[in-house]
Structure prediction request, 300 residues.
Amino acid sequence: MQDAEKLRGLTLDMHALMKDNNAEVVCTSSIFCRKRHRLNFFQRWLSYVSDDGKLQTGQTSLFPIFSTDAFRKMPNVKFLQLNYTKFYGSFEHFPKNLILLFWHGFSSRCIPNHVCLEKLVVLDLSKSCLVDAWKGKPVCIESLAIAISVVFN
Amino acid sequence: MEVIPNFEVQKVLRISYDFLDGDYPKNLFLDIACFFNGMDVDDAVRILDGIDKGARFGIDNLINRCLVEINIDKRLWMHQLVRHMGREIARQESHKCQRIWCHEEAFTVLKGTTVNSSIFLFVYLNGLWCLKIFILLLSFLMYFQYF
Prediction:
């Protein structure tokens, strides 16, 4: 994606992808049987990954885990919604000018060090696994309009 | 209608958008269409003020032009057709400024792969395999007919 530097906002909700409301009919046809499946996006992705042999052997769950390299392509993003997503890697390229961050189901125990929240206005980390959110971080949030709704499990 | 909005309706609706003066109200309209539909007005104003001051004024301007409404429970609301128009414009202008509101697209952007095309390829290859067997059968039949 060559234009991703111009990315202004991105919304992704894994739970929405797993719902059936945008399922597509996928035909697998052969002479002996003709099957029609209604697959939602996530199932289609799974079938694609497993057919292609791209499934990593060390992966313990089928839940997709994204690489934080994806953030490298979006330095100027303003609105980000990453509900129920998981990432691996370092967060050093996490966008710096973020205004809005929705990350329901944030899976880490504390907010990663490189996550810069200085321009943030709204931070919603509901249903997250946070234990010590601001551990070791010099919190310097001045635009304090933050509506943190952290729900500790 | 969901995926490909009606062209004629769009053209009429787009007039109001094109008459918005300057980039700021246009961007504001597209942001609301893509991300802030259904959000509390005060929250949305606070967030949008984080980018540029004067969001409240901008939203009032959009309300005057009937592009946005405020519900009884103080939420930003757009008519479905207007929202589709806004999202379509956002899609067309993605070379300038990209707004990814579709979860599936966001997924592929983060994964860095295009999923749909490869699924089609898979189905297509399956089809080819059928064709091969069909031709084989046909040739067998012709062979037996010949003798």
Notes: The radius of gyration of chain B is 25 Å. The first strand of chain B starts at residue 69 and ends at 70. Chain B has two domains: 7-102, 114-147. Confidence is low (pLDDT under 50) at residues 114-123 of chain B.
